[in-house]
Amino acid sequence: MPTVDRRPELRVVPANEATWEHLQAVFGTRGDPARCQCQWYRIAERDWSSVAREERAHLLREQTDCDHPESDTTSGLVAYLDDEPVGWCAVAPRTEYPRLRLKRVTWSGRNEDPEDASVWAITCFVVRTGFRKRGVSRALVLTAVDFARNRGARAVEGYPMITHPEQEITWGELHVGSRSIFAAAGFTEVTHPTTRRVVMRIDFRG
In whole angstroms, what is the distance from residue 161 CA to residue 163 CA? Predict the structure, then answer.
């Protein structure tokens, strides 16, 4: 009898349609994702050290509204390979990320209103060890575009790194994603504020 080559199904859902247990499985118990709980861009630098990991996790749970598929206030996306939770992408109105207002990489070379909530931002990716280089981040970016557009965004942007085959980059540095996955999702380069970072964007309407 011939062997059936069945590849795992990769799907992405809004975080409220995932369980909190699954999201925490993606973040793990050690390393930057577990410590940060995707709050780095949401908590002001002066307050960061005073907010414990448990409080950061509580904030994330409120933002995502995990375990409540009926919710219409979720933030972020969770990727699955079959039924295994494997990835996370943070996507929300840019105004929800206070640190972006202070980052030179966000504003260098362009004149934008930091208070424009119609522009959304993709700020962070987490892919579990053992599931990387399997298209998870690319699927998350593609879904994030529709996620933002369907919730009224007029544009969505990211701040990815430029990667080269011969250049070693730690996974922690690449939490913002790579230029190639944004380009593959239809983003175009807006500015090139540093040698390693670009701002990329999709505008849905004028």
Answer: 6
Q: What structural domains does the chain harbor?
A: 10-203 (3.40.630.30)
**Tens-place pLDDT, residues 6-42:** 677 899 999 999 999 999 999 998 889 999 999 999 9
Dig out the tokens for 100 from the structure: 């972006």
Residues 63 and 57: their CA atoms lie apart, in Å, by 10
178 within 8 A of 163, measured Cβ to Cβ: yes
Residue 105 CB neighbours (<10 A): 16
Whole-prediction pTM value? 0.90
- Cα angle 100, 182, 191 (rounded to 5 degrees) comes to 55
- CB 94 within 8 Å of CB 157: yes
How would you list the strands of the sheet with 10-14, edge to edge?
10-14, 77-81, 84-93, 119-127, 155-158, 199-203, 188-191
